[in-house]
Amino acid sequence: MAIERTGLEWDEFDVRTDELVINMGPQHPSTHGVLRVLLRTDGEVVQQAEPHIGYLHRCAEKIGENVSARQWIPYTDRLDYLAAMNMNLGWALTVEKLLGLEVPEKGRHLRVIMAELNRIASHLVAAGTYGLDLGSFTPFMYCFREREKILNLFEEACGARLTYSYITVGGVMADLPAGWTDRCLAFLDQFEPVVDELHALLTSNAIFVRRAAGIGVLAPELAVSYGCSGPVLRASGVDWDLRRDGDPWYTRMYQGYDWDVIVQVNGRYPHDENYPQVPRAAVLGDCWHRFYVRMLEVVQSMRLVRQGIERYRTAAGSVGQPIKLSQKLPKGEVYLETEAPKGQMGFMVIGDDSAVPVRVRARSSSFCNLSVLSELCRGCLVADVPAILGSLDIVLGEIDR
Amino acid sequence: MAEWLKGYLDPPWLAYLAAALLQCAVLLAVVMTAVAAFNWMERKIAGRLQDRLGPTRVGGRFGWLQSVADGIKLLTKEDIIPAGADAMLFRLAPYLSFCTAFCVFVAIPFTDKWVALRLNAAVFFILAVAGLEVFGVILGGYSSGSKWSLLGAMREAAQVVSYEVPMALCVVVVVTVAGTMDLVAIGKMQSGWFWDWLVFHDPFTFLTFWIYSTCAVASVNRAPFDLPEAESELVAGFMTEYSGFRWSVFFMAEYGSMLAVSILAAILFFGGWNGPIPLAGLLGLTPQHGPVAGFLGELLGAINTLGKGILGVGVMMWLRWTLPRLRIDQVMTVCLKYCIPLAAAMFVGAALWTYAFPGGLILPARAAPTEPAFPLAAAAHNAGEQ
Fold first, then answer.
1. Is the backbone peptide bond immediately before B224 cis, with ω within 30 degrees of 0?
2. Chain B residues within 8 Å of chain A (Cβ atoms)
């Protein structure tokens, strides 16, 4: 029986004897979830790396066709579970656009606060686990210690530490408790020196630079053609951030905020005097730049949270009201992409004049970011595969849905 | 000790045998206790560096008995041998590593009188035996029947064997400066104050110490050179398939060799049993003042040696929990392109220094030892001659 060979596919029975087929995962300390990467190596040099996904598939989109729009919010939590607020936000905005429902101003600012705090938390996990993949155990603990404080803040706001279901269609589930904004500002004040600590331990560490600089260089054209987004795209030099360039229904949330898109323009990153300089070994689009972009984005998110808190405090009105569960979705189709920490997260909803949508689709950023792994891993060493995979910062929850 | 036993046991060879066994037992006890202590120390240091406490429950507030609890747990685990593994080699490998790691201690002096076997080529013996450790690793990786283990074993073999070269070169620098391979003599040469230590003898030995410490960390597979055991890529490298007691034997071998290279560094560079100030001499704890005082003086010296060794191990642990790890090709680059040329340059420099300043530049030269290495044999020989 002829077995078809298409492009990168190869069947596992026909392996040349001088090559080694190594299976990384699905149980593996550094594949960031249940991911199987099939490596064909010539000793230490990887000839082909093929990711196999689907181990975490939970039919979320199918379930979306059976529950109402608001009832699908907990399923969005579990897509990118490290940035659940952003997932909730993406879906809420999509359904609101279909309904034509505008959230009052105070609710918009509160959403900015939550989304950006969760961006910080997600990037902390990315940075910590990336260090862990490369062998430094301590920055991981420091990142998680800081993330604990953010999670405590979220727990005060909505009762959950990971799967919040807080931002919902129509606004948020409940307003913030008293004193929350003060505690949030206190957290941000004590977090700033920790970022410098992390820079010292990782970004400017000579060994880290040797492991990450020049590894897995992603050319901008390749990034765009594979649909990469988020820090992966910006680290390759493509100036694209949906918070600035996206759908007006989404960018309206960030209107009037003063922040920088972290991308290298004319060889310089914005406000880079305060941060470690780019080492000479680093090439635009390599693992080091992806890491660096995330570290700088954390600082921008801190700025956004501070501004958000200020505006939230001075805004009048309510934070919005969740829609009724029986709210019918009009006929129509909306696809809206938002800038999640990992990249562009798109949600599509097709309504058919009933409370339950006809079709729900989540376009995951990590799915496209992961697909470029096979290109990046060609010719690298086996030890570089976790380095590249870690720098792509994927979450299997949103890849497999 | 053999002399003393000779008074009780009639055939002299029996006395020597008993003395040897007793000394081995003492050494084993000391090193095993040290290994258990290192386990505790590692967890505490790791915890404190990571802004947490480490073990605090087992055995009081500081978790003293955590190592014991871990040991008991490992002993009671099921003995799993993978189906594809070569059973005999799989069983043999950990003990090979363990034995070679411990054999090194036979030649290491804790003070000038407390040494199990005083060899006048002790340095050579130690380097040779330490080089055997890699067999256990290769066997372990090969016999596990898993590709991951095999990769880890190959990496480790390449790394350990490569780093022995600059390590030996660094040790040879000290031997050149000291003029002898006898560790007891090298230690005696450094008696006095801390400026008598060989590390401060000339700039070449000072730099050699830093190169030696890098090579020593690499040859015991500690971070940042711990790629063979890299958790993030190969689960545990060659140790992946080992569980329970067999794993703990590998683990004891690793800590044992860490202690061995640390104590070696202490003796070669930092005066061994001589403290920074000659406390024993100042306090009058010398044999001239009686056997008890002499014993206390020796004890102080042994505490010095062990203390310096433990400090070295502590620094290795500090490095492990702070730095990321180097990739294997970077590890080999560091060895071949940096360590070996530097060590060779240090050797040439030290040789020229001892040629140019045979009396020592700042410090007076220490005479090479005139007493024989094997006093009993020498006495017998002399008696035979007459």
1. yes
2. 46, 49-52, 147-148, 151, 223-224, 226-227, 230-233, 235, 321-330
- Residues from chain B that touch A386, judged by Cβ atoms under 8 A, are 232-233
| CB proximity list for B343: less than 8 A, separation 6 or greater | B166, B169, B170, B173, B208, B211, B215
pLDDT number for residue B313: 92
Kindly list the residues from chain B whose CB atom is less than 8 angstroms away from the CB atom of residue A44: 151, 328-329
Nearest chain B residue to A205 by CA distance is: B323
Q: Is B84 exposed, middle or buried (0-12, 13-18, 19+ CB in 10 A)?
A: exposed
Please report the pLDDT score of residue B232 as a whole number: 45
How near does any CA of chain A get to the CA of B273, in Å?
A: 34
Domains parsed from chain A with CATH numbers: 60-400 (1.10.645.10)
pLDDT tens per residue, range A154-209: 999 999 899 999 999 998 988 999 899 999 999 999 999 999 989 888 888 888 99
CB-based contact A207 B227, cutoff 8 Å: no
Q: What is the mean pLDDT of residues B236-264?
A: 84
**Residues of chain A falling short of pLDDT 70:** 1-18, 27, 29-31
* Long-range CB contact pairs, A328-332, < 8 A, 24+: A328/A353, A328/A354, A328/A355, A329/A69, A329/A95, A329/A98, A329/A99, A329/A353, A329/A354, A329/A355, A329/A356, A329/A357, A330/A98, A330/A99, A332/A98
CA distance A300 to A306: 10
Give residue B245's pLDDT.
Answer: 85
Distance CA B159, CA B154 (A): 9
Report which listed range, B125-129, B135-139, B154-158, is most confident.
B125-129
A positions 257-316 inside 8 Å of B (CB) = none
For residue B147, list chain A residues with Cβ-Cβ distance below 8 A.
Answer: 20, 22
Q: Does A44 touch chain B (CB under 8 A)?
A: yes
Smallest Cβ distance to B51: which of A134, A142, A383?
A142
- The C-alpha of B339 sits at a distance from chain A's nearest C-alpha, in angstroms, of 16
Q: What is the reported pTM?
A: 0.84
